[in-house]
Design a protein that fits this description.
Keywords: DNA-binding, Transcription, Transcription regulation. This protein is of the alpha+beta class. Helix content is 58%, strand content 7%.
């Protein structure tokens, strides 16, 4: 017996491989899920009224009002309806003939024309093999679960849709831009929850057949779309109170990693890693539950590392006394304001040193009193001097949000 999560992944794989809409009903014919993409439209068919009202087993193949074809497949606890598609190559004349013979409502002709024009083509022989594949997926048996007369089934089993509902249908759902927007909204909602386990499970179930805006090269298209996703993840993180500088560094790190890839599968891997990484940030931020004031102070510190930050200036900026500022920041973060400022400056100095800037310039840029002050502070946090750190040949790891944003230990 296939467990529930695996069954959902198998059902989604059917949608991804065929690009066909997949309706998922329970035994009471209540719709539990619908996988769609921007490549195939769906009409407001009442499958429950038709299929649920039958006093006999569900036909494996049946047709719609416009002679489009659907496949049904039943599995314990689940009923799948897959389609629509066509078993004929539809010319414009044939499409118009079908539409005009079905309805005289000229107002819905354009939508019906677009619907039929975008139908995928499968032969009935393909349908037979498809049913065998479905049966193997869910039972492990490569048997034919249908009666042989598929043509007769298609003709005899016809379902109609409500034309009034069609007039009210929002066809934007099937436009690529709108479909992409809906997918990204679902994705960002999952990231915002900060639950990486839920994210990984849900990503496998989201209807996510996104085709990026075309360029001459598919690799460039996928990279461009990944950069768009990274920008939205970064914006979401900043809006939620994460440190601006750190988030931009993290975004840029993934963009650099992305541009190094030459295979499509590697681009997808980088995208998924970034999504999971940003979700982890939200998980940690949810657990911290910083107040808006503390979040703003952290962002302010991050934006002003190249100035001479001090308690008096920060308290004045946020209209709070120095005593209250120190008390609140210490209570919520576990660190004093001054210790946190030094930690952030030292972390920033590591990047500058690895970029080749002389230690004396780094000290001046970060507004330390003098090089001696900078060197002592640097050694306090790292255990070595700035010059020793710069001479190390190994490259720095990517900026870690957990290390930068909330250091576990400040001596």
């Amino acid at each position: 017996m296939i467990n529930s999560h695996l069954k959902k992944k198998l059902i989604k794989s059917v949608h991804i491989l065929t690009h066909l809409p997949v309706y998922v009903f329970n035994e009471q014919f209540q719709l539990e899920n619908l996988y769609v993409s921007d490549r195939v439209y769906v009409l407001p068919y009442d499958f429950k009224a038709y299929c649920g009202g039958l006093n006999q087993p569900l036909p494996f193949v049946f047709s719609g009002a416009l002679e489009e074809v659907f496949i049904s497949y039943s599995y314990p606890g689940t009923i799948l309806i897959i389609g629509p598609f066509t078993t004929l190559h539809l010319t414009e004349d044939l499409i118009k003939e079908r539409i005009h013979s079905y309805t005289a409502r000229s107002a819905i002709w354009p939508n019906l024309f677009s619907y039929l024009k975008h139908l995928p083509f499968f032969s009935l022989g393909d349908v037979r093999d498809f049913l065998i594949h479905l049966n193997y997926l869910f039972t492990g048996k490569a048997d034919c679960p249908y009666s042989e007369d598929l043509h007769l089934q298609v003709e005899q089993n016809k379902i109609l849709f409500d034309e009034k509902k069609l007039e009210d249908c929002d066809w934007r759902v099937f436009q690529p831009e709108y479909y992409t927007y809906r997918y990204e909204e679902q994705l960002l909602a999952l990231v915002r929850e900060g639950n990486t386990q839920k994210l990984q499970k849900s990503l496998a179930l989201l209807s996510n057949s996104i085709i990026p805006a075309s360029t001459k090269k598919p690799l460039r298209s996928e990279k461009n779309y990944t950069i768009v996703v990274l920008e939205k993840l970064a914006a979401l993180a900043i809006q939620s109170g994460h440190d601006i500088i750190t988030i931009y560094q993290l975004r840029d790190y993934y963009i650099q990693l992305l541009e190094e890839k030459s295979q499509l599968i590697d681009v997808l891997y980088v995208r998924d890693c970034a999504i999971i990484h940003f979700t982890q940030l939200f998980h940690d931020n949810v657990n911290k539950n910083y107040s808006p004031v503390t979040q703003s102070i952290i962002q302010y510190i991050g934006l002003n590392l190249y100035t001479s930050l001090n308690l008096k200036e920060i308290s004045k900026k946020f209209f709070i006394s120095e005593t209250a500022l120190c008390s609140r920041f210490k209570k919520e973060t576990g660190f004093s304001v001054i210790a946190y400022i030094h930690y952030r400056k030292i972390n920033e100095s590591k990047l500058l040193l690895k970029a080749g800037l002389p230690p004396t310039e780094v000290a001046a840029n970060l507004h330390y009193y003098d090089y001696s002050h900078f060197s002592r502070t640097f050694k306090k946090f790292t255990g070595i001097s700035p010059k020793e750190f710069q001479l190390k040949r190994e490259s720095l790891p990517p900026p870690s949000f957990l290390d930068t944003y909330c250091p576990k230990k400040l001596e």
